[in-house]
Amino acid sequence: MTFHTRSYIAELRPFNCAMAAGASLIGIFVSSAEFTSALLITALFAFTAVFLITGGGNVINDYFDVDIDRINKPTRPLPAGLITQSKALVYACILLLLGTILASLLNSLCLAIAALSSALLILYSWRLKRSVLIGNLLVGYLTGSVFLFGGASVHAFYVPAVLFISAMFAIVSREIVKDIEDLAGDRRMGATTLPIKYGDSLSRKAAVLFMLIAVAVSPIPFIISAFGFTYLSIIAVADVALLAAAAFSWKSAASSARYMKYGMVIVLAAYVLGRITL
């Protein structure tokens, strides 16, 4: 493998791509789909499609942020000059297109989710990343939609949809807290985030509100009898942890964001163990 090829692989940020693609498998797993050879093929297509689209999103993000990254992240291939901007743009478009084509081989809903996500990834990086709340909402949607995509690949909707909504609002909450943490730096860069526009006190309240929405929908799989008491008991622990983490933003935004991440891991464990113990 040449150094040039390694640069293109590194620009993908493959670990992040694999994490996102793995979330699509969770969306499939919690859907109670019957384990067959056809399911393995579906899972492979879903995993690869999400991997490619996430990679394309990472590359297009670096394309638009290259000037900032030359200061903040100079070792990445694009800001380091190992990949030219024109080639990075073509690379991103190819990745997004291939991922969307793979999604079309699953079903029309997967195609719609993939096409919308690809368009939003470009729009987010180009215009909306540092806008008031809209950028946060887009990150929440894009993260949560991976679970929805996994469920859609096996024509399952209810449990993946709850996971999508819960993940989306929890991520929005965390993104707001991260904006509070980055307040000084974002102000110097001329960003227009929620804390810059309306202050950190209102932003903290918004973070708690979005987390409350995420927590409010979490019992639905138990209520509709999709999962049992194992799920309910674990999700209750996760909900307490997430709400406590959101409230902790008044003391330390950095610690709050970190604790939210731990709470989200517990949420995923609740869904996986809830499915196993059916």
Report on this model:
The protein is mostly helical. The chain folds into two domains: 1-129, Tetracycline Repressor, domain 2 (Orthogonal Bundle); 157-278, Four Helix Bundle (Hemerythrin (Met), subunit A), CATH 1.20.120. It is built from 14 helices and no strands. It has helices at residues 3-12, 14-29, 37-64, 66-72, 85-104, 108-128, 134-153, 158-181, 183-188, 194-198, 200-217, 220-223, 229-247, 253-276. Helix 3 runs antiparallel to helix 7 (134-153), helix 7 runs antiparallel to helix 8 and helix 11 (200-217) runs antiparallel to helix 13.
Give a quick precis of the structure.
With 278 residues, this protein is an all-alpha fold. Helices cover 80% and strands 0% of the residues. It has helices at 3-12, 14-29, 37-64, 66-72, 85-104, 108-128, 134-153, 158-181, 183-188, 194-198, 200-217, 220-223, 229-247, 253-276.
